[in-house]
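Long-time lurker. I teach an intro course on protein structure, and each term I like to show students one example going from raw sequence to a predicted 3D structure in token notation. This year I'd like something fresh instead of my usual example. Would anyone be willing to generate the tokens for the chain below so I can use it in lecture? Attribution to the forum is fine with me.
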Amino acid sequence: MYEKINRFELYKEMYQRELELKETISNRFLSNLSVLTFASAGLAFCVKNVHDIQDDKVFPFFLVFMGIAILSIIALIVVFFGFVPGTTQYIPTAENLEKYYQDLVSHYTEYPKDDEDPEESADNTFSEHLFNTYTEATTHNMKMNERRFKIMANGNTLLFSAIVATLLALACYVPTFFEDDANVQKVEVIKPKIADEKKE
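-- Reply from a regular --
Happy to contribute to a lecture. Here you go:
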């Protein structure tokens, strides 16, 4: 025989779990934004210094890597914008719940239900209301978290491709670090000899 399940406690725990899950997803989202900032900085460096490899053999590969990185970042931003509209549903505050309960007591005191005690009728209606509130909020938050998970999965794939493409684009600059810079001139300062030294 299975033990009887308290559905109210079950839905209450599920509600709390979905709120914790929402916070976890939000933290991952912020972490991805930080990584995206670094990738964007790498691309900015590449664009600013593109003249250094413009005549190099790796330039066609550089353009391919840059194109992939830019398209990935643009797609990533579009995907992340889909993350923002998601709203989380919360249960009413304790103050609002208490006010609702007192209104129920006043209502059943004035309009008794089948000769029941007003507080008993209020308790039953309040319990049903709270049960439905947890059920609706949990269902809504669960759907939103599933949606956020899908967005994050797509975003992680795009972020990975953007990072790899950016690193490959930056790698195209490595040969330039070992080349002699033709624009650098050596300046040697020589102390002039004094023709007529002072005699002691």
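Some talking points for your students: Helices lie at 7-48, 59-81, 94-110, 118-171. The chain has one domain: 7-173.
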